[in-house]
Amino acid sequence: MRFGLLGPLTAQDADGPLVIGSTKVRLLLGILLLKRGQVVSSDELKAALWGTDLPATASSSLHNHVTRLRRTLGAEGAGRLRSVPPGYLLDVDRGALDSDRHEELLGNARTARLREDWETVRRSCASALGLWRGNPLADLPGLDHGLLYGPVLQALDEARLVALEWRCEADLRLGRYDGLAAELYALTEQHPLREGFHRHLMVALHRTDRQAEALAVFHRLRKILADELGVSPGRAVQEALADILQGHGESARRLPAAATVPAVAPVPEKASGVHVPAQLPPFSRYFSGRRAALARLDALLEDARSHAGTGPIVISGPGGVGKTTLAVHWAHRVRTDFPDGQLHLNLRGFAPDGSAVTTDSALRSLLEGLGVPRARVPASQEARTALYRTLTDGRRYLILLDNARDAAHVRPLLTGSATSLTVVTSRDQLLGLVAVEDAQPVALDVFSPEEARELLTARVGRARVTADPRAVDEAVELAARLPLALAVVGARAAVTPALSLTRLVERLRRARGLDAFTGSDAWSDVRAVFSWSYETLSADAARLFRLLAVHPGPGITVSVAGSLAALPPARAHTLLTELAEANLVTEGEDGRYSFHDLLRAYAGELGERTDSATSRGSALRRMTEHYLHTAQRGALLMDPQLAPVELPPKAGRGVRPEYLADIGEAREWFTGEHTALVETVVRSGAAGLDLQCSQLAHALKTYLNWAGHWADGETVQRAALAAAERLDDPTARARAHRSLAVTLRWSGREAEVETHLRRALDLFTAEGDLLGQADVHLDLASRYEQQERPERALHHNERALGLFRELGTRGGEAKALNNVGYFQALLGNHAEALAMCDAARRVFEEIGDLRSLALTWDSLGVVHQETGDLERAAECFRISAEGLREVGAAYNEALSLDHLGDAESAAGRPEQAREAWQKAWELLDGLRHDDAEAIRLKLRR
What we know:
Layout: E1 2-4, E2 10-13, E3 16-17, H1 23-34, E4 40-41, H2 42-50, H3 58-78, E5 81-84, E6 87-90, H4 98-114, H5 118-130, H6 150-173, H7 180-190, H8 195-207, H9 211-228, H10 235-246, H11 291-306, E7 313-316, H12 323-334, E8 341-346, H13 359-369, H14 381-392, E9 397-404, H15 407-410, E10 421-426, H16 431-436, E11 440-443, H17 449-460, H18 462-467, H19 469-478, H20 483-495, H21 501-510, H22 526-535, H23 539-548, H24 558-564, H25 569-581, E12 586-587, E13 593-594, H26 597-610, H27 613-638, H28 663-672, H29 674-686, H30 690-706, H31 710-727, H32 730-746, H33 753-766, H34 770-786, H35 790-807, H36 810-826, H37 830-847, H38 850-866, H39 870-887, H40 890-906, H41 910-927, H42 931-939
Parallel strand pairs: 7-10, 7-11, 8-9, 9-10
Antiparallel strand pairs: 1-2, 2-3, 4-6, 5-6, 12-13
């Protein structure tokens, strides 16, 4: 088996990549790999998985996670994960980790460096750097903090930086200056205290006749070191300075003291608990040109420093002109001016399929980037904007809002703070922001011929450009000097060195571009560039590329891509890798693959031209069925009492649903696929897949309601209702009416609730569906509870209880029994109430319905509080709130915390009461539920 630590965690066996399920299982594997061959105690593992807030079930949960990890590792790896008191040990061979290979390559480079074999140094370091896919174990939250694992990860990152330093040094020794200065500029911005990068940059600038810039680099380094550490640059940098001042190049040939890779790197100091977002996308090492634009941006920042702030900066220009590349490059250069962090968000304003990020979604993403938990993000746009501006007020953030549609798209996302800087990119000039919000415009056009040649030279190498200058000039013109097109041309030329530039140009000349970009302007031949790249793909990869346009985005997992194209996951992964290498998709740190809006449009056009409508429709059906079968399993894990729709025992041909092991994996999957799931319901209904639309909506209702995504829930259920009406399926219509009513009730929108519930009850009754009738009676009871009409609520619960008993449904009977007991307690029948609720509790414990169990503990708390046993009541409410938090039922958790506060207050413990009410208020306020106001009044007493 082989494992990857140098980026998001990966694992593979002889058959290919392994899909590692939940975050906690991935975290468990990551820890065991970092401490391979060592026994890691159970206490250490529990602390790493849950922190200080250990659940009561931590020990059994840890055992379950170990079991799932063994199952994931298969026969080959499971035997290596052994239980060794007081914990677990993972026995991994030397060489099985990508970090082992990195260490070996760096050792080769160290030896070659000592004998000044610079070609070997460069080759070894480049190979080592090629192993990196991102920050070490970047997908495992929390590992980089603390003394247990932070130093190990820091040591890995230090080894990467040493490889970078040595590779840059080898480039200097070998005279390979193309693009080196741009890369080193970025490295010095990212690592301002690392003198090696500054020294190499000084030498690179000096060797390319840019002495003034080289001296500026030295002076900036000297100031940084003096301000931060109170020291001066070291001997190697001083020697490089002397060479520059004396006008010769000895600094490039001197061999500084050998850098070493410490066994444990120092952990950088960071204020405890401070959330500092660092969301900027990676910079491009091939960034070229744009000197005037960079000077304009620098001047705007300097003006902001002098005048205590500036309006937002708007970088505008045609699509593909390099707005994002410029913004990201400059943001990396100036990020140290914004110590509170950097936020980035792609607004997808010009997405061809119209799937722009809504203002509400954008604000939610920005707030989460600032550390606001999802459950505490307000529901209304006004409240989100207010919270966003409050959190950024007086702080120094750099916010990059990419691909905005228009001024209205951006205006609610502006901070209102003079200390932060917002940079917006758009194809629109955003004149409204310039006129009203004092935005500073930076307009981009296509490259000049010189800039275009510079970019191609950086990508394909000076030797090939010099050998075929006429072909380069023609390529520049055929690509219309559009940076996006030039980047694709250069990338393809670079990865096919045997293909002459003349041949490349011939292919471009024969190709045709996107209809939207035809003509004589800068857009003319984008499709030509894309088609040339597309035509180099294998037939299977080309088919998958076309089918990716069927997926709603924003990103697709390997598993979903496999079902979309009717391929095994391992094959889908291979083809996605091929597409990524061809720069037609990008793999994110979360393992999802996405592509640029223009590429999505291109893939869609290719699909319409190449694949039949039947073929594309089949892909949509397979994707929908993948989501349907996986979602139904996840929904049943979250709510075992959910009445599932009847699905075939196996999904359709080519569909491989994902296996979700427990409620934690289910919640994680629903969260990751949230956007795609909602859009798939809408698209499947529009495409005539009415049955799948109705069924998928039913499977999503539990997650959407529990997580508080009521607006999406309404969208989904209205689509399902329309689909059910087209099907003329009374049962499906009843389900949709009921689900829509529940969603509206959860969100506090009462006007339509009873109408939909009564319609559902009539339909279920006409169909003789006793289970459906029972469920609606429970919903009617909840409605009457909200109206403070306990007698009517008790009546409907007793009707439900009778129906469940007639059906012999233990779980449903227990749910109704608990509800009846709850209302009996409110009506003063305490002994009967206690017996009913306790009987329900035993059933839920037996069948494993965690949410219903937690709700029953809340009912028991009410019974004990009504009888005056406040200590027992408080304990029941605490158990209930913890259980509801475990399953992600935020609204119900808030109600149990409210009950806990009432019990603590009645027991004469005001501080404990306020603590419970505060937590309840935060949850309800985050959900923007009307119940928050009542708890706020309690806190003000």
